[in-house]
């Protein structure tokens, strides 16, 4: 009675690729890395401050929630990509251009959302939610400035790649 075992190519490829998974601790010590962590923390504050209110009664705050949650999720996604150095394993993607487009669009849409947030906060609207909305407006402008900084660093990185 003979038992034969075989290894599939999928298993062999999976074990080979998972052993090369890297972790870049130094990324969090760079200015873009610190800005990204700040964007995540303060972006979380923006949408949780609004989510704890009756924002759904006011369409302006729905827009702010959409922008805040959308870019919070994408920023977490990009942080994971940069921390695990996944971008080195997918060289077909122009990562400097992707980063520039992501940060640029985040800056523009967050700026619009922060302005909408700030202009929608009035004591007449709802006294109960006023402080949460005012705080979310402040943090939205801070997150906007972080995305502006990361847009600048992405542009410098993209420009240095195109000059080579």
Automatic annotation (TrEMBL):
<dbReference type="GO" id="GO:0019911">
    <property type="term" value="F:structural constituent of myelin sheath"/>
</dbReference>
<protein>
    <submittedName>
        <fullName>CKLF8 protein</fullName>
    </submittedName>
</protein>
<feature type="transmembrane region" description="Helical">
    <location>
        <begin position="93"/>
        <end position="113"/>
    </location>
</feature>
<dbReference type="InterPro" id="IPR050578">
    <property type="entry name" value="MARVEL-CKLF_proteins"/>
</dbReference>
<dbReference type="Pfam" id="PF01284">
    <property type="entry name" value="MARVEL"/>
</dbReference>
<keyword id="KW-1133">Transmembrane helix</keyword>
<feature type="transmembrane region" description="Helical">
    <location>
        <begin position="56"/>
        <end position="81"/>
    </location>
</feature>
<feature type="transmembrane region" description="Helical">
    <location>
        <begin position="27"/>
        <end position="50"/>
    </location>
</feature>
<dbReference type="GO" id="GO:0016020">
    <property type="term" value="C:membrane"/>
</dbReference>
<feature type="transmembrane region" description="Helical">
    <location>
        <begin position="133"/>
        <end position="155"/>
    </location>
</feature>
<feature type="domain" description="MARVEL">
    <location>
        <begin position="27"/>
        <end position="159"/>
    </location>
</feature>
<keyword id="KW-0812">Transmembrane</keyword>
<keyword id="KW-0472">Membrane</keyword>
<dbReference type="InterPro" id="IPR008253">
    <property type="entry name" value="Marvel"/>
</dbReference>
<dbReference type="GO" id="GO:0042552">
    <property type="term" value="P:myelination"/>
</dbReference>
<dbReference type="InterPro" id="IPR013295">
    <property type="entry name" value="MAL"/>
</dbReference>
């Amino acid at each position: 009675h003979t038992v034969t075992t075989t290894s599939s190519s999928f298993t062999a490829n999976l074990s080979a690729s998972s052993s090369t998974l890297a972790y870049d601790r130094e990324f969090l010590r760079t200015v873009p890395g610190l800005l990204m962590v700040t964007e995540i923390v303060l972006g979380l504050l923006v949408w949780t401050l609004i989510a704890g209110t009756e924002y759904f009664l006011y369409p302006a705050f729905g827009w702010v929630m959409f922008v805040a949650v959308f870019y919070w999720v994408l920023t977490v996604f990009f942080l994971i990509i940069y921390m695990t150095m996944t971008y080195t394993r997918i060289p077909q993607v122009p990562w400097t251009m992707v980063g520039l487009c992501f940060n640029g669009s985040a800056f523009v849409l967050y700026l619009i959302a922060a302005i909408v947030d700030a202009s929608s906060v009035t004591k007449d609207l709802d006294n109960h939610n006023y402080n949460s909305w005012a705080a979310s407006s402040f943090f939205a402008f801070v997150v906007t400035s972080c995305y502006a900084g990361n847009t600048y660093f992405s542009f410098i990185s993209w420009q240095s790649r195109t000059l080579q």
